[in-house]
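The data are quoted verbatim for completeness:
=====
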Amino acid sequence: MKNKSNLFLGIIILVLALLVVGLVINQNILKNKIIDDNQDEYLSDQSTEKNYENLTYSDFKTNEESPFVTITSQELLTLLTTTNSSNSIRVGDMSKTMEESMPIMATDSSVQSTGAENDFSQTNVQVSGIDEGDIVKTNGKQIFIAKDKTITVINDVDVPIADEEKYTVKINDQNAEYLTIKGMFLDTEDLLYVIIEKNIVESKFTQYSYLYPQMTYIPFTVVETYRIEENSLSKLNSVEIKGNYYQSRMKDGIVYIITNDYLYDFNPNIYYDRFIMPVKEIKNDVVSNFESKIIMPRDVSEESKVMYNLTSLNYLEKESSIIDSIEIILDNSNTIYMSNNNLYVVTEKNMYYPFFRFGWNNYSKDLVFESIYEKVYPTNIAKEIESNLNDSEKLIEILNNYYQTLDKEEKEELYNLIQEESDKYYQEERNQYDKTYINRIELLLDGSFGSISQGEVKGKLLNQFSLDEEEGYLRVATTYQDYNGYSTISKNAVTVLNSSLNEVGIVDEIAPNERIYSARFMGDKLYLVTYRQVDPFFVIDLENPTKPKVLGYLKISGYSDYLHPISENLILGIGQETEANEWGGTNNSGVKVALFDVSDFSNPKEVGKWVSSASYSNTQVSYDHKAFLYISKNNLVVLPITERYNTSSSEFGFVVLKADKDGISKITTIDHTKKNRYYYGSIARSLYIGDELYTITNNLLKTYNFTSQEETEVVIGEDISYIDETYR
C-alpha cells in the first residue's frame, strides 16, 4: 500500500514538473516572439494570462525592445476603469529607426490639371499628390457639393443654371440621432467617396442603474462609395468605423480615415460593445468585419484617454475595401500631417497646471512633497519621512515635531526653502507639459500601416503647416513658454528631427514675446510669421539640417494667418491689417493680402498688398486653407470674405485679386449676400473649370467668365433671403 502511495505521489510530482517546464518554455517563446513584419509590426507583451481584476498601466511597461505594445479588448476595458493615480508617467522618447523618406516638394499646393480637356482646379492641399477630404469637389465635368445630409451634383458645368442639369442625393440613417457629411474624395472619374459622421443613441438598464436606463451617444464615421452615373450616384459599399471623424487623406487611390473617441472611466458592462467594435463593411450585399489592432505606448500616461482609429480603404480591392485598421491610445491631438511615406498624429499632454500650482488637488500636493522633502529637511528627518510616506498621521507628527524645534527665523527659512523648491518643481512640471509628441505611423506601399515611432519637441504646434518632411528629416515649428518662476515669455523654435525622430538641429528663441501665426515650408526654406504688434516675416534656412538659421526678416504692420507660394520667389500672405490704438496696442482693421518677394533671402520685401475697405472683415482662409484658390494660369487669387461696416449690415462674397511680380490688384467681387446666412462653418469654396470661375456657398453657386466677365446664378439649396438685418 505504501509503495502504491509513493508511486502515485511520484507520478503527480512528475506531471507537475512537466507542466512547469512546459509553462516556462511557452512563456519564453511568447516573451521573445517577434511577429513577422508583414503580419504585425508591434511586439506584444501578452506572454502570460493577466489578472484583469488588478491590471494596471504598469503591467505594460516591461518590454524594453518596443515602444508600443498591442493589447486585447478586455485589457483595454480594465485599464479604463483602473484608478492608479500614482502612475502618471511621461510618454518618453519612443524613437524607432525608419528608412530614409523620399523628398517632398513643397510647391504650389493648389493642384491644377493641365491641358485643354483637364483644365480645372482641385482642393488646395498642403502636400502635392496627397488629397484632403473636402465638402466641394470637381472632376472637370461635374461639381459635387456636400451640405448637411445632402450631396448636390452639378451634372453639366457648361449649363449649371438648368434645373435638369443638377440633382441631389440624400444620406439617410433612421438609427442615427445626428448625421452630417464631413467630406468627399474623387477617385478617377467615376468613384466618389463620401465621409459621414453620425451618432447612434443607445440606452439600457444595467446592474448599476435600475431606476433609469443608461444612455450613451456612440459616434461613428461612415465612408460610402458611389459610382458616378450619367444622372445619378449609385451606392457601391459602406464602411463603418467607430469614433468621431477627425481627418482624412487620399494618395494613389487609397483613402486614409482618422477618427477619435474619448475613453472615459465608465463601467465596461455598459460600454463594452462600443470599445471593441470592428470596422464593418457592407459590399455586394455581404457584411464583413475587420478587427483593428489596439496599440498603446509602453510608457503610457493615465491621462492618455483618446483612442485614434486609422483605417485605409480602396474600393477597387476585389473582396474587402478595408486594407488595414489600427487603434492607438494617445493624448489629445490637434494636428494631422501626412507625407508620402508617413502619417503623423501630433499630440499634447493634458495640462493640469492650475491645480498643481495652487494646491487644489491633494494628489498633486503629495507629488510635490515627495519630490522636494529630501532637499528641504535635514538628513535624519528626511529618513524618518521616507519610512513613513504611506502613514499620513505619522508623517504629520514628524513634521510638526520638527517644526516646533525651530525658532522664528528658522521657520521662515524653512518656509522660503519649501517655496523655492516648490517653484522649481512647478517649473519643471510645466516644461514637461509644454511639449509636443510626434507619433509617426509608417505607410506601406500597399496601404497598410508599418512601424510606429514617437519623438518630442518643446512647445506647441499651430497647425499641420508647422510640420514638413524633407529627405528623411522632419522639421517642426513651435511656440513655447519660457517660465522663470515669476513670469512667462513666449518664444519660438524650429527643430529638426532625423529619421529616428531624434533632435539633430534647432534654431531657438525666435521673436521673443510673440507667437507663430503661420508657417510654410518650401524645400530647404521655411517662411514663418510671428506677431504681437507688428508682423515679422522670417526666412529660415534648413539646407543644413544640423544648423538651421535665420537668413533674414521683414517687419510690417498686420499679420498673415496663411502663407501660399505662387512662384519660386513670391509668397502670398492672407491675414489681417492692424493699426495702433489709443491704449498702445493694436486692432485688426480688415483682411489683408500681402505679397512677399523672397528672391533675396537675407532681405525679403513686401512688394504688394490689398486691404479690405470694410472696418471689420474676415476670411475663412485664415483658419481653413481649403477655402483658398490660386489660378496660376491667370495669376488670380480667390478668397471668401465677410465685410462688416459701421452699420448693422454686412456683405458676404468672394474677392478676386490679381497677384504677380508687379503687385496685387483687385479684379472683382462676387456677391453671395442675399442667399446666405454666413457664419463660421458655412460652405465657402471656389474652383475653376476652363474659363469659368465657380464660387459656392450654402445655397448659391455663381459662375464668372474670365473673358466676358459675365455672371450666372444657381440656387443649390433652400432659397434664403435675409430677414433679420441685424444678424448680417
